[in-house]
């Protein structure tokens, strides 16, 4: 979906949010099994913050691209 479209432009906001979202989902599933892994929990919180900041930037700069991205990644709007 987004990965194929943005493979040549890895610095774009969409690609960064896509990769952060994949890492967040992977870490969340890891933390369901390992509830006391606090260093991974800290990493998850940092990734969530980065992803939120990028989404806020994209929403401010280009609302159409923002709406398209959150619908493609199936993430909720803030």
UniProtKB/TrEMBL annotation:
Pfam families: Ribosomal_S15. InterPro entries: Ribosomal_uS15, Ribosomal_uS15_bac-type, uS15_NS1_RNA-bd_sf. CDD domains: Ribosomal_S15p_S13e. GO terms for cellular component: cytoplasm; ribonucleoprotein complex; ribosome. Keywords: Ribonucleoprotein, Ribosomal protein. It comes from the Eukaryota. Belongs to the universal ribosomal protein uS15 family. HAMAP family: Ribosomal_uS15_B. This is 30S ribosomal protein S15.
């Amino acid at each position: 979906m987004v990965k194929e479209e943005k493979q040549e432009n890895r610095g774009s906001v969409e690609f960064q949010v896509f990769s952060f979202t994949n890492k967040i989902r992977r870490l969340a599933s890891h933390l369901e099994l390992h509830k006391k892994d606090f260093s991974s929990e800290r990493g998850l919180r940092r990734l969530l913050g980065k992803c939120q900041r990028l989404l806020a930037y994209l929403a401010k700069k280009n609302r159409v691209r923002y709406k398209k991205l959150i619908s493609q990644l199936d993430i909720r709007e803030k």
